[in-house]
Write a structure and sequence with these properties.
The complex is a heterotetramer, with two copies of chain A and two copies of chain B. Chain A has eleven helices and 14 strands. Chain A is of the alpha/beta class. Chain A has one domain: Glutaconate Coenzyme A-transferase (3-Layer(aba) Sandwich). In chain A, strands 1, 2, 4, 6, 10, 11, 12, 13 and 14 form a nine-stranded mixed sheet that branches. In chain A, strands 7-9-8 form a three-stranded antiparallel sheet. Chain A has a two-stranded parallel ribbon with strand order 3-5. In chain A, strand 10 and strand 11 form a beta hairpin. In chain A, helix 2 packs parallel to helix 3 and helix 3 packs across helix 4 (88-95). The longest helix of chain A is centred in the middle third of the chain and has 13 residues, at 106-118. Chain A starts with 11 loop residues before the first helix and ends in a 5-residue tail after the last helix. Chain B is α/β, with parallel strands linked by helices. Chain B has one domain (10-261): Glutaconate Coenzyme A-transferase (3-Layer(aba) Sandwich), CATH 3.40.1080.10. Chain B has seven helices and 14 strands. In chain B, the strands form four sheets. Chain B has a five-stranded mixed sheet with strand order 5-10-12-13-14, covered by helices on one side. Chain B has a four-stranded mixed sheet with strand order 1-2-3-4, with helices on one face. Chain B is globular. The two termini of chain B are 23 Å apart. The model of chain B is unreliable at 263-268 (pLDDT under 50). Classes of the chains: A alpha/beta, B alpha/beta. Chains in contact: A-B, A-C, A-D, B-C, C-D. Chains A and B meet through strand 3, strand 5, helix 4 and helix 5 of A and helix 3 and strand 9 of B.
Chain lengths: 298, 268, 298, 268
């Protein structure tokens, strides 16, 4: 783990090389919000294999990774495209037995990640009592009795991802990462603490002095970050509030295309394997007109 | 007496019916893809429950978003909030019972109000993989007063026994839920055909009111288990003119609530 | 518990009446920082009895309460006057067996409070393993084995205070409480979530509209707050960064006076029982000159 | 070679000795009333360990406070930090071993580096009630590399066995600490008379170096248990002129570090 004030700026390709085949990767993303999708596309182009993807709310990036054959296992509470409906590549892969879905309730998964973040073997919750979720994975969730009261709770075993990948508003070269208005969703808060390695893509790399003027926005400290990549619009087609909204048109296009294997493949060819640079990707998904459109929240 | 509306659609009736369940002292959290509950929350606050506390998009405490547009966890939902509720605080209030009310839907609902949004068939190799339990895996176990809504009242949705319990309703009925130490539970089921509640002793689902133009026979035919039928079955209380005006003009002029009826034509 | 958007503004006297004899009171305060000491003085004047005081770091307010005979039990990790040395009333009362000290390591106590905040019967930590702390209270801390790995951890039983009392920068009439730059210490974060009732004193009551313009500073939502009292310099002689520093002179005076029972009594008479209003208190502890002095941080 | 200082006091020697233990890759957190460690951290960063990460006052990541003045957890310590470390994050980094280094002192220290700051006598009805375990109750159990300092090297401080284990050192010595699953532990004890470490096998405290003008006999007489004495006992490495200048002029011109010697005249 990087603890030094070293310059951690790299390219997407260099950052992607920190993810190894077989790794457990915690992938940020909340429905249509805040997901490091430029880096996800890079992982796909790099042909990663046998990944276990951890997301609280699995979304479009996960579905792309599955469609590209990068994923062996999913750890999440839900996988879909929010209001755009099912994640079809996910659905097909699970129905075909090609990908395993390890499903938890949200607070069970958070408890697993927090236990990992705290170096504790487990933490407890009441979430999921009475559901069929607990019996799914006796190696990671188990009902135990409180040693003081006898009350039953769910013990959730620690989860320590190999790598966390996130997209944020800005960072300095050392990896002090800032969020606006502040880190809201728990993946940005818990993933970097739980994971062994942390890769962050940001809209903009700024001076360390600017970080020191606005420490209230810093959500991840440099000593926990291994790589920083500057990728403007790096969350597209997801949103990065308040900078830009999600791209409805592309979400809808993928939701429709992904109904068939062929359609999914064509989408990936056109938008992920095709473009050789991030600029080319942005051009292909709508260029300047699209970039102006997503600056408006409506 | 407020003037009763004559011209309304089933999505509007569902929103109004749900809105009337909320009380001014409630603290309500909304989940993902929840246009009908969000519209209902906004409507309740604009009418009979001005003191209702809404944690909008699970973050914005007492927020006042613009009319519905993006999705229901979108940052635009936090507008004019008094606090961005840290998610650790949200979870502690949910666990502790400070946030007591939650609305959800699912692919299957059984006679004891258990809900499945995980798989049809066997978990490991499902016939249909559904999105997943998400918040319902928490809320059913964390003592919430749960309001279930669905826009597809069919025998595929209302089943004798869910294939997978993603959400703990009344489990096997009777005092099963209580014996596990879980409080509250499902209160009401609001569908495109009718409103149902749960008989207090057996916790078996029971017809409460029929939407205009819907018959008892139709509801039973569209329900995959034997519904409890009370002696008197009133029609679902119709919306007022003012409720419909607020909904159409102020809260949801784009008709986002109708998104939930994709493939299912609205009726009333 | 108050859940409504009601006007919760009251006087110190009214707020103090929400605390009952025998209550478990979570009292905010971090050494020389951020403690609702105007309210503590009011509790003393109101003659509260048999209180259990919960503080992470017990300080001057606790020592006053003990000296005044209000306290039966202390739950804390340390009790002192920071760089000004021992809390003598505390020391004397424990040595005489008049007050029970229930001592935890910090993360044990936080785990107890967080379990309370989450409505969980217990949470676990590794903190305190190998110390003599765990054996002190088998009813609230106990070593258990992880159900997955067998690793030993310390189970910490939930603690739910009857009342939390805090001092913050500002609030609206409904109890939306703001902190600058933000809530830093965990007592301000955890006490309101764990306690049944919450009383907050603030430097200034502001309009609800101002809260909505600056939600990033809000640390406690109105639905968890029962009483709001406007008390400028309400933390004195503690600091409220960045508004005013702690009052070294008064800390030193108390540290010296409290070496004897008589000195302590004289201090309480002069500064707590004597003044009938908060303004009179501020005048007696140094008036305008002092108020100007503590605006400088040096 | 840096020029060796001739004119320095014992507090300065202690600060310099502690400073030299810190490495550029360390992440160090300071506790309450810790002027000597804080001065040492600031000195290390200004000299041989520019990359050292200091979580100042347990909150301000990589902060650059003004010269020492108020107490060591004061908000003024957060000046020019890159982040206000949320205390939940701090605890997770402490538990997880990301923050690995901590300095502490106590009223009693025994031959295995266990520390007592809770009571002298019985817990329930103590002869002397001390302030309490505070952070040491955590840090000793959470795998920290611990540096112990004390300004009162007397038989009352250094005892055969502490009356109460507020901080887990090497417990009963040998592999007792390891067997409990605790990593790292006390590294060094820096006092007003000498520096001590722990013999690797037995974990018994061992003399490492003597401060100028202090004899072996004096140290043993002031220690309440039999110290391990190595063959060669070098003098404690003296400060450099530059270290003393930085300490006196830049880091601690007010001499806050001397506060820790209340009642005990400084000597060197």
């Amino acid at each position: 783990m990087a603890t030094k004030k070293a310059d951690k700026v790299m390219t997407l390709t260099e950052a992607a090389s920190l993810v190894r085949d077989g790794d457990t990767v915690a992938l940020q993303g909340m429905g249509t919000q805040m997901s490091p999708l430029a880096l996800v596309r890079e992982l796909i182009r790099a042909g990663k294999r046998d990944l276990t993807i951890v997301m609280i709310v699995g979304g479009i990036g996960l579905d792309w990774l599955i469609a590209a054959g990068c994923v062996r296992r999913v750890i999440a509470i839900i996988v879909n495209l929010d209001e755009f409906g099912m994640a079809h590549a996910f659905r097909r892969a699970v129905e075909a037995g090609e990908v395993v879905m390890e499903e938890y309730s949200e607070h069970q998964l958070l408890s697993r990640l927090l236990a990992g973040a705290y170096g504790l073997p487990f933490l407890v919750t009441r979430s999921g009592l009475g559901t069929d979720l607990i019996a799914l994975h006796p190696e990671t969730t188990r009902i135990i009795a409180c040693p003081f009261t006898g009350q039953e709770v769910v013990a959730c075993r620690a989860l320590v991802p190999d790598v966390a990948i996130l997209h944020a508003h800005r960072a300095d070269r050392y990896g002090n990462v800032q969020f606006f208005p502040k880190p809201i969703w728990l993946d940005a808060d818990v993933f970097p603490r739980a994971a062994k390695k942390v890769i962050v893509t940001v809209e903009e790399i700024i001076e360390n002095e600017e970080i020191r003027r606005t420490p209230i926005h810093t959500g991840i400290p440099y000593f926990k970050v291994d790589a920083v990549v500057e990728v403007p619009y790096g969350a597209h087609p997801c949103s990065l509030y308040p900078f830009y909204a999600f791209d409805r048109a592309l979400f809808q296009e993928y939701a429709t295309a992904s109904r068939t294997v062929e359609g999914t493949r064509a989408f990936l060819d056109r938008y992920i394997y095709g473009p050789t640079t991030h600029a080319e990707y942005l051009q292909r998904v709508g260029g300047a007109e699209m970039l102006l459109r997503i600056r408006k929240w409506e | 007496m407020a003037e009763i509306a004559r011209d309304y659609t089933v999505d509007e009736l569902m929103v109004v019916t749900l809105a009337r369940q909320f009380r001014s002292e409630d603290i309500v959290l909304n989940g993902t893809v929840s246009f009908i509950p969000v519209a209902a929350i906004m409507l309740a606050r604009a009418t009979h429950a001005p003191g209702l506390t809404w944690v909008a998009g699970a973050v914005g405490v007492d927020a006042y978003p613009e009319p519905l547009s993006g999705n229901t966890l979108d940052p635009t939902m936090w507008r004019r909030c008094v606090m961005y509720l840290p998610q650790e605080h949200m979870w502690s209030y949910v666990h502790r019972g400070v946030l007591e009310t939650f609305c959800l839907r699912g692919a299957q609902i059984d006679k004891y109000g258990n809900v499945n949004n995980t798989v049809i068939g066997e978990y490991a190799r499902p016939r249909v993989r559904l999105p997943g339990s998400a918040g319902m895996g928490d809320m059913g176990s964390l003592d919430k007063r749960i309001f279930i809504w669905t826009t597809t009242h069919t025998p595929r949705t209302f089943v004798e026994r869910v294939d997978f319990r993603s959400c703990a309703g009344y489990l096997d009925g009777g005092d099963a839920r209580e014996r596990l130490g879980l409080k509250n539970g499902p209160q009401l089921v609001i569908t495109n055909l009718c409103v149902m509640d749960f008989e207090p002793e057996s916790k078996h689902m029971r017809l409460k009111s029929l939407h205009p133009g819907v018959t008892l026979e139709e509801v039973q035919a569209q329900t995959g288990f034997r519904l409890l039928i009370p002696k008197a079955i009133p029609p679902t209380e119709p919306p007022t003119v003012e409720e419909i005006r607020l909904l159409r003009e102020v809260i949801d002029p784009r008709g986002m609530r109708k998104l939930e009826f994709r493939g299912a034509p609205a009726r009333a």
